[in-house]
Amino acid sequence: MVQRTNDHAAFELLVNRYQKKLFGYIWRFTGNKHATEDLFQETCMRIYQARSSFNHELPFSSWAYRISTNACLDMQKKKSHALEKATDDKIMTQHCSAHDTPDTILEQQTKSQRIQMLLNELPEKFRAVLLLKHYEDLSIKTIATVLDIPEGTVKSRLHKGVKQLTVLAEKRGLSDEM
Amino acid sequence: MKCKKTDSAVIGYLFKTISHDAEKRMEKHLASCNECSTRLDRFKRTQKLLDAITCPEPPDNLTRDVLTNIAAQHDAKQPQNRQKTAPDIPLPDYIEALCKTAGSEQMRVYHFLTKHLGVENGEAAFDEYLHEQMQLQFTTETGAIISYENLINTATGERSVHKTEGLTKSSTVENCSFPTLAEEIGIGTNPCETICRRQIKLMEKTRSVEIKCIKHRTHKKGGCEFLIKPKGGHS
Q: pTM, whole model, 2 decimals?
Protein backbone atom coordinates (compact mmCIF):
# COMPACT_ATOMS: atom_id res chain seq x y z
CA MET A 1 0.00 0.00 0.00
CA VAL A 2 1.25 3.41 -0.94
CA GLN A 3 0.09 4.90 2.36
CA ARG A 4 2.14 2.43 4.33
CA THR A 5 5.48 3.05 2.72
CA ASN A 6 5.83 6.12 4.84
CA ASP A 7 8.09 7.98 2.51
CA HIS A 8 8.05 11.36 0.93
CA ALA A 9 7.59 10.09 -2.61
CA ALA A 10 4.48 8.15 -1.69
CA PHE A 11 3.03 11.18 0.04
CA GLU A 12 3.74 13.35 -2.99
CA LEU A 13 1.87 10.82 -5.09
CA LEU A 14 -1.14 11.04 -2.79
CA VAL A 15 -1.13 14.83 -2.72
CA ASN A 16 -0.95 14.97 -6.50
CA ARG A 17 -3.72 12.44 -6.88
CA TYR A 18 -6.17 14.12 -4.53
CA GLN A 19 -5.17 17.77 -4.73
CA LYS A 20 -7.82 18.76 -7.26
CA LYS A 21 -10.66 17.12 -5.35
CA LEU A 22 -9.59 18.43 -1.97
CA PHE A 23 -8.81 21.88 -3.28
CA GLY A 24 -12.27 22.07 -4.92
CA TYR A 25 -14.00 20.86 -1.77
CA ILE A 26 -12.24 23.38 0.44
CA TRP A 27 -12.80 26.14 -2.10
CA ARG A 28 -16.54 25.58 -2.06
CA PHE A 29 -16.51 25.34 1.72
CA THR A 30 -14.78 28.69 2.14
CA GLY A 31 -15.28 30.57 -1.12
CA ASN A 32 -11.98 32.27 -0.54
CA LYS A 33 -8.76 31.69 -2.45
CA HIS A 34 -6.30 32.43 0.31
CA ALA A 35 -8.25 30.49 2.89
CA THR A 36 -8.45 27.57 0.49
CA GLU A 37 -4.70 27.52 -0.06
CA ASP A 38 -4.04 27.76 3.67
CA LEU A 39 -6.53 25.03 4.47
CA PHE A 40 -5.21 22.80 1.71
CA GLN A 41 -1.74 23.11 3.24
CA GLU A 42 -3.15 22.48 6.69
CA THR A 43 -5.05 19.42 5.45
CA CYS A 44 -1.94 17.95 3.81
CA MET A 45 0.07 18.61 6.93
CA ARG A 46 -2.52 16.87 9.10
CA ILE A 47 -2.68 13.93 6.72
CA TYR A 48 1.09 13.62 6.81
CA GLN A 49 1.27 13.88 10.57
CA ALA A 50 -1.54 11.38 11.10
CA ARG A 51 -0.41 8.93 8.40
CA SER A 52 0.50 6.25 10.93
CA SER A 53 -3.02 6.29 12.40
CA PHE A 54 -4.71 5.95 9.01
CA ASN A 55 -7.36 3.24 9.14
CA HIS A 56 -6.72 1.11 6.07
CA GLU A 57 -10.28 -0.18 6.09
CA LEU A 58 -11.44 3.28 5.00
CA PRO A 59 -10.89 4.60 1.50
CA PHE A 60 -8.11 7.18 1.59
CA SER A 61 -10.39 9.80 0.04
CA SER A 62 -12.93 9.48 2.89
CA TRP A 63 -10.19 9.98 5.41
CA ALA A 64 -8.85 12.97 3.49
CA TYR A 65 -12.30 14.55 3.30
CA ARG A 66 -12.73 14.06 7.03
CA ILE A 67 -9.44 15.78 7.75
CA SER A 68 -10.16 18.66 5.39
CA THR A 69 -13.67 19.11 6.85
CA ASN A 70 -12.21 19.25 10.34
CA ALA A 71 -9.59 21.74 9.18
CA CYS A 72 -12.34 23.94 7.67
CA LEU A 73 -14.44 23.72 10.83
CA ASP A 74 -11.46 24.51 13.04
CA MET A 75 -10.67 27.56 11.00
CA GLN A 76 -14.30 28.61 11.17
CA LYS A 77 -14.18 28.29 14.94
CA LYS A 78 -11.12 30.47 15.14
CA LYS A 79 -12.99 33.15 13.21
CA SER A 80 -10.03 33.37 10.94
CA HIS A 81 -9.60 36.12 8.40
CA ALA A 82 -10.43 33.99 5.45
CA LEU A 83 -14.01 32.99 6.08
CA GLU A 84 -14.94 36.37 7.45
CA LYS A 85 -13.52 38.05 4.41
CA ALA A 86 -14.98 35.64 1.92
CA THR A 87 -18.02 37.74 1.18
CA ASP A 88 -15.98 40.94 0.93
CA ASP A 89 -13.44 39.65 -1.51
CA LYS A 90 -14.26 41.13 -4.82
CA ILE A 91 -11.64 39.31 -6.79
CA MET A 92 -11.82 35.57 -6.76
CA THR A 93 -9.74 33.65 -9.24
CA GLN A 94 -12.17 31.67 -11.26
CA HIS A 95 -11.73 28.74 -13.56
CA CYS A 96 -12.79 30.11 -16.93
CA SER A 97 -12.78 28.71 -20.42
CA ALA A 98 -10.34 30.21 -22.89
CA HIS A 99 -13.31 31.04 -25.12
CA ASP A 100 -15.09 33.17 -22.51
CA THR A 101 -15.23 36.87 -23.22
CA PRO A 102 -14.39 39.33 -20.42
CA ASP A 103 -18.11 40.13 -20.05
CA THR A 104 -19.01 36.48 -19.75
CA ILE A 105 -16.23 35.93 -17.23
CA LEU A 106 -17.42 38.90 -15.18
CA GLU A 107 -20.99 37.68 -15.33
CA GLN A 108 -19.98 34.17 -14.30
CA GLN A 109 -17.83 35.48 -11.49
CA THR A 110 -20.61 37.59 -10.15
CA LYS A 111 -23.18 34.83 -10.27
CA SER A 112 -20.75 32.29 -8.88
CA GLN A 113 -19.77 34.66 -6.10
CA ARG A 114 -23.34 35.40 -5.20
CA ILE A 115 -24.19 31.72 -4.98
CA GLN A 116 -21.05 31.05 -3.01
CA MET A 117 -22.13 33.75 -0.57
CA LEU A 118 -25.45 31.97 -0.13
CA LEU A 119 -23.65 28.73 0.51
CA ASN A 120 -21.52 30.45 3.15
CA GLU A 121 -24.67 31.51 4.95
CA LEU A 122 -25.64 27.90 5.54
CA PRO A 123 -24.57 26.39 8.87
CA GLU A 124 -21.32 24.48 8.31
CA LYS A 125 -22.86 21.14 9.19
CA PHE A 126 -25.43 21.51 6.41
CA ARG A 127 -22.85 22.92 4.01
CA ALA A 128 -20.45 20.01 4.50
CA VAL A 129 -23.14 17.44 3.73
CA LEU A 130 -24.41 19.36 0.72
CA LEU A 131 -20.91 19.74 -0.75
CA LEU A 132 -19.98 16.12 -0.21
CA LYS A 133 -23.22 14.96 -1.78
CA HIS A 134 -23.59 17.35 -4.69
CA TYR A 135 -20.01 17.99 -5.79
CA GLU A 136 -18.11 14.97 -4.56
CA ASP A 137 -21.00 12.61 -5.33
CA LEU A 138 -20.45 10.56 -2.18
CA SER A 139 -23.10 8.13 -0.98
CA ILE A 140 -25.03 8.83 2.21
CA LYS A 141 -23.14 5.96 3.85
CA THR A 142 -19.75 7.40 2.89
CA ILE A 143 -20.70 10.89 4.04
CA ALA A 144 -21.77 9.38 7.36
CA THR A 145 -18.31 7.80 7.65
CA VAL A 146 -16.51 10.98 6.65
CA LEU A 147 -18.39 13.15 9.13
CA ASP A 148 -18.75 10.41 11.73
CA ILE A 149 -22.50 10.87 12.09
CA PRO A 150 -25.46 8.50 11.54
CA GLU A 151 -26.84 8.10 8.02
CA GLY A 152 -30.20 9.49 9.16
CA THR A 153 -28.48 12.66 10.32
CA VAL A 154 -26.76 12.99 6.93
CA LYS A 155 -30.12 12.83 5.15
CA SER A 156 -31.73 15.22 7.56
CA ARG A 157 -28.88 17.75 7.16
CA LEU A 158 -28.99 17.42 3.39
CA HIS A 159 -32.74 18.08 3.29
CA LYS A 160 -32.51 21.03 5.68
CA GLY A 161 -29.56 22.45 3.79
CA VAL A 162 -31.31 22.28 0.43
CA LYS A 163 -34.46 23.86 1.87
CA GLN A 164 -32.55 26.67 3.55
CA LEU A 165 -30.53 27.33 0.42
CA THR A 166 -33.71 27.39 -1.68
CA VAL A 167 -35.34 29.93 0.62
CA LEU A 168 -32.19 32.10 0.63
CA ALA A 169 -31.90 31.96 -3.16
CA GLU A 170 -35.53 32.94 -3.58
CA LYS A 171 -35.17 35.85 -1.19
CA ARG A 172 -32.18 37.16 -3.15
CA GLY A 173 -33.87 36.58 -6.49
CA LEU A 174 -31.19 34.14 -7.61
CA SER A 175 -33.61 31.33 -8.35
CA ASP A 176 -35.25 33.40 -11.08
CA GLU A 177 -31.95 33.59 -12.95
CA MET A 178 -31.80 29.82 -13.34
CA MET B 1 -56.47 18.18 -1.98
CA LYS B 2 -53.12 18.86 -0.33
CA CYS B 3 -50.45 16.21 -1.02
CA LYS B 4 -49.12 14.40 2.02
CA LYS B 5 -45.62 13.94 0.61
CA THR B 6 -42.96 15.99 2.38
CA ASP B 7 -40.25 18.25 0.93
CA SER B 8 -37.72 15.73 2.21
CA ALA B 9 -39.20 13.01 0.02
CA VAL B 10 -38.83 15.25 -3.03
CA ILE B 11 -35.28 16.28 -2.10
CA GLY B 12 -34.40 12.64 -1.46
CA TYR B 13 -35.61 11.81 -4.94
CA LEU B 14 -33.73 14.71 -6.52
CA PHE B 15 -30.44 13.95 -4.77
CA LYS B 16 -30.86 10.20 -5.21
CA THR B 17 -30.73 9.31 -1.53
CA ILE B 18 -33.75 7.01 -1.61
CA SER B 19 -34.00 3.37 -2.61
CA HIS B 20 -34.60 2.28 -6.17
CA ASP B 21 -38.16 1.21 -5.32
CA ALA B 22 -38.93 4.49 -3.59
CA GLU B 23 -37.54 6.31 -6.61
CA LYS B 24 -39.89 4.41 -8.94
CA ARG B 25 -42.86 5.17 -6.68
CA MET B 26 -41.93 8.85 -6.59
CA GLU B 27 -41.64 9.01 -10.37
CA LYS B 28 -45.13 7.59 -10.66
CA HIS B 29 -46.41 10.02 -8.04
CA LEU B 30 -44.78 13.05 -9.68
CA ALA B 31 -46.51 12.25 -12.95
CA SER B 32 -49.86 12.77 -11.29
CA CYS B 33 -49.16 15.35 -8.55
CA ASN B 34 -48.79 18.98 -9.59
CA GLU B 35 -47.88 20.10 -6.11
CA CYS B 36 -44.88 17.76 -5.90
CA SER B 37 -43.84 18.56 -9.48
CA THR B 38 -43.76 22.24 -8.54
CA ARG B 39 -41.72 21.44 -5.45
CA LEU B 40 -39.33 19.36 -7.53
CA ASP B 41 -38.83 22.24 -9.98
CA ARG B 42 -38.14 24.58 -7.08
CA PHE B 43 -35.41 22.35 -5.64
CA LYS B 44 -34.03 21.66 -9.12
CA ARG B 45 -33.39 25.38 -9.48
CA THR B 46 -31.35 25.23 -6.27
CA GLN B 47 -29.43 22.28 -7.62
CA LYS B 48 -28.67 24.25 -10.80
CA LEU B 49 -27.47 27.14 -8.65
CA LEU B 50 -24.92 24.83 -7.07
CA ASP B 51 -23.72 23.82 -10.52
CA ALA B 52 -23.12 27.47 -11.34
CA ILE B 53 -20.35 27.83 -8.76
CA THR B 54 -17.07 27.74 -10.63
CA CYS B 55 -13.98 26.36 -9.01
CA PRO B 56 -10.44 27.47 -9.83
CA GLU B 57 -7.59 25.11 -10.59
CA PRO B 58 -5.12 24.74 -7.74
CA PRO B 59 -2.10 27.02 -8.28
CA ASP B 60 0.76 25.25 -10.07
CA ASN B 61 3.16 25.60 -7.18
CA LEU B 62 0.72 24.64 -4.42
CA THR B 63 1.65 20.98 -4.15
CA ARG B 64 5.33 21.79 -4.37
CA ASP B 65 4.96 24.36 -1.58
CA VAL B 66 3.05 21.92 0.58
CA LEU B 67 5.67 19.23 0.17
CA THR B 68 8.49 21.70 0.78
CA ASN B 69 6.84 22.87 4.00
CA ILE B 70 6.31 19.35 5.20
CA ALA B 71 9.89 18.42 4.40
CA ALA B 72 11.10 21.54 6.22
CA GLN B 73 9.09 20.70 9.32
CA HIS B 74 10.28 17.12 9.16
CA ASP B 75 13.90 18.24 8.88
CA ALA B 76 13.46 20.73 11.69
CA LYS B 77 12.69 17.86 14.02
CA GLN B 78 15.51 15.63 12.83
CA PRO B 79 18.63 17.48 14.07
CA GLN B 80 17.43 17.37 17.70
CA ASN B 81 16.98 13.62 17.49
CA ARG B 82 20.28 13.15 15.74
CA GLN B 83 22.02 15.27 18.32
CA LYS B 84 20.59 13.14 21.05
CA THR B 85 21.36 9.74 19.64
CA ALA B 86 24.21 10.20 17.23
CA PRO B 87 26.91 12.67 18.18
CA ASP B 88 28.89 14.06 15.30
CA ILE B 89 32.04 11.99 15.49
CA PRO B 90 34.34 11.89 12.45
CA LEU B 91 35.39 8.64 10.82
CA PRO B 92 36.78 6.23 11.73
CA ASP B 93 35.87 6.85 15.38
CA TYR B 94 32.31 7.29 14.41
CA ILE B 95 32.08 3.85 12.90
CA GLU B 96 33.55 2.35 16.02
CA ALA B 97 31.14 4.26 18.18
CA LEU B 98 28.32 3.23 15.91
CA CYS B 99 29.23 -0.40 16.21
CA LYS B 100 29.73 -0.35 19.94
CA THR B 101 26.18 0.61 20.66
CA ALA B 102 23.34 -0.75 18.69
CA GLY B 103 20.41 1.08 20.33
CA SER B 104 18.58 3.76 18.34
CA GLU B 105 19.60 1.88 15.27
CA GLN B 106 17.58 3.86 12.79
CA MET B 107 18.89 7.26 13.75
CA ARG B 108 22.41 6.01 13.71
CA VAL B 109 22.04 4.45 10.31
CA TYR B 110 20.41 7.61 9.01
CA HIS B 111 23.15 9.76 10.38
CA PHE B 112 25.84 7.49 9.05
CA LEU B 113 24.40 7.25 5.57
CA THR B 114 23.64 10.94 5.10
CA LYS B 115 26.99 11.94 6.53
CA HIS B 116 29.01 9.76 4.23
CA LEU B 117 26.91 9.51 1.12
CA GLY B 118 25.54 13.02 1.12
CA VAL B 119 21.97 13.94 2.01
CA GLU B 120 20.37 12.87 -1.24
CA ASN B 121 22.06 9.50 -1.71
CA GLY B 122 22.08 8.86 2.00
CA GLU B 123 18.35 9.40 2.33
CA ALA B 124 17.72 7.18 -0.66
CA ALA B 125 19.78 4.42 0.96
CA PHE B 126 17.99 5.00 4.25
CA ASP B 127 14.60 4.72 2.56
CA GLU B 128 15.69 1.43 1.08
CA TYR B 129 16.81 0.26 4.48
CA LEU B 130 13.55 1.35 6.17
CA HIS B 131 11.47 -0.20 3.44
CA GLU B 132 13.25 -3.49 3.93
CA GLN B 133 12.68 -3.29 7.67
CA MET B 134 9.03 -2.47 7.35
CA GLN B 135 8.40 -5.65 5.42
CA LEU B 136 9.34 -7.72 8.42
CA GLN B 137 6.55 -8.90 10.66
CA PHE B 138 6.56 -11.61 13.24
CA THR B 139 3.76 -13.67 14.70
CA THR B 140 3.83 -14.54 18.37
CA GLU B 141 2.51 -17.66 20.00
CA THR B 142 -0.74 -15.85 20.70
CA GLY B 143 -1.20 -15.00 17.02
CA ALA B 144 -0.45 -11.30 17.46
CA ILE B 145 1.53 -9.68 14.69
CA ILE B 146 4.46 -7.55 15.76
CA SER B 147 6.41 -5.28 13.51
CA TYR B 148 10.14 -5.53 13.33
CA GLU B 149 10.53 -2.03 14.66
CA ASN B 150 8.42 -2.63 17.77
CA LEU B 151 10.15 -5.86 18.43
CA ILE B 152 13.61 -4.39 18.19
CA ASN B 153 12.66 -1.45 20.33
CA THR B 154 11.19 -3.77 22.92
CA ALA B 155 14.19 -6.02 22.82
CA THR B 156 16.60 -3.15 23.26
CA GLY B 157 14.56 -1.64 26.07
CA GLU B 158 13.52 1.49 24.17
CA ARG B 159 9.89 0.47 24.20
CA SER B 160 7.97 -0.85 27.16
CA VAL B 161 6.92 -4.47 26.91
CA HIS B 162 3.43 -3.39 27.94
CA LYS B 163 3.13 -1.20 24.88
CA THR B 164 3.88 -4.02 22.48
CA GLU B 165 0.73 -5.97 21.91
CA GLY B 166 1.35 -9.68 21.87
CA LEU B 167 4.31 -9.57 24.24
CA THR B 168 4.07 -9.99 27.98
CA LYS B 169 6.51 -9.02 30.62
CA SER B 170 7.39 -12.65 31.18
CA SER B 171 7.96 -13.35 27.50
CA THR B 172 11.41 -14.60 26.76
CA VAL B 173 12.93 -16.00 23.67
CA GLU B 174 12.71 -19.47 25.13
CA ASN B 175 8.99 -19.40 25.88
CA CYS B 176 7.92 -17.09 23.15
CA SER B 177 7.78 -18.78 19.80
CA PHE B 178 9.33 -16.53 17.24
CA PRO B 179 10.75 -19.04 14.82
CA THR B 180 11.13 -16.61 11.97
CA LEU B 181 12.39 -13.96 14.30
CA ALA B 182 14.98 -16.16 15.90
CA GLU B 183 16.25 -17.10 12.51
CA GLU B 184 16.10 -13.61 11.07
CA ILE B 185 17.54 -11.52 13.84
CA GLY B 186 18.71 -13.96 16.46
CA ILE B 187 17.01 -12.09 19.23
CA GLY B 188 17.32 -15.12 21.49
CA THR B 189 21.03 -14.91 21.87
CA ASN B 190 22.00 -11.33 21.38
CA PRO B 191 19.76 -8.71 19.81
CA CYS B 192 22.63 -6.29 19.67
CA GLU B 193 24.67 -8.66 17.60
CA THR B 194 21.98 -8.94 14.99
CA ILE B 195 21.31 -5.25 14.81
CA CYS B 196 24.97 -4.70 14.31
CA ARG B 197 25.02 -7.36 11.65
CA ARG B 198 22.47 -5.40 9.69
CA GLN B 199 24.53 -2.28 10.10
CA ILE B 200 27.61 -4.09 8.92
CA LYS B 201 25.76 -5.23 5.83
CA LEU B 202 24.77 -1.68 5.10
CA MET B 203 28.16 -0.23 5.76
CA GLU B 204 29.85 -2.79 3.62
CA LYS B 205 27.37 -2.06 0.89
CA THR B 206 27.89 1.66 0.96
CA ARG B 207 31.54 1.91 2.00
CA SER B 208 34.61 0.05 0.84
CA VAL B 209 35.24 -1.50 4.20
CA GLU B 210 35.23 -4.92 5.74
CA ILE B 211 33.89 -5.28 9.22
CA LYS B 212 34.45 -8.19 11.52
CA CYS B 213 32.87 -8.72 14.90
CA ILE B 214 35.64 -9.42 17.37
CA LYS B 215 33.65 -9.47 20.57
CA HIS B 216 29.96 -10.17 21.06
CA ARG B 217 28.38 -8.19 23.85
CA THR B 218 24.81 -7.68 24.91
CA HIS B 219 23.18 -4.33 24.35
CA LYS B 220 23.28 -3.53 28.07
CA LYS B 221 27.02 -3.98 28.11
CA GLY B 222 27.59 -1.60 25.25
CA GLY B 223 27.13 -3.85 22.26
CA CYS B 224 29.55 -5.78 20.12
CA GLU B 225 32.98 -4.60 19.12
CA PHE B 226 34.15 -4.68 15.56
CA LEU B 227 37.31 -4.53 13.60
CA ILE B 228 37.08 -2.23 10.62
CA LYS B 229 39.52 -2.19 7.76
CA PRO B 230 39.51 -0.99 4.15
CA LYS B 231 38.38 -3.63 1.71
CA GLY B 232 41.39 -5.79 0.78
CA GLY B 233 43.67 -3.84 3.14
CA HIS B 234 45.06 -4.29 6.65
CA SER B 235 43.39 -3.21 9.86
A: 0.55
Identify the pLDDT of residue A106: 52
Residues of chain A short of pLDDT 50, as ranges, are 1-6, 82-100
A1-86: CATH topology is Rna Polymerase Sigma Factor; Chain: A (1.10.1740)
Please answer yes or no on whether A15 and B15 come within 8 Å at the CB atom: no
What is the C-alpha separation between B72 and B119, in angstroms, rounded? 14
The verdict on a CB contact (< 8 Å) between A165 and B127 is no
- Residue to substitute from B66, B127, B136, interface A, most A β-carbons within 10 A: B66
Domain ranges (residues) in chain A: 1-86, 100-172
Instruction: Note whether B52 contacts A: Cβ–Cβ < 8 A.
Output: yes
Answer left, alpha or beta for residue B16, where phi above 0 means left and psi between -120 and 50 means alpha. Answer: left
- Mean pLDDT for B69-81 is 61
CATH topology of domain A100-172: Arc Repressor Mutant, subunit A (1.10.10)
The residue in chain A having the minimum alpha-carbon distance to the alpha carbon of residue B48 is A178
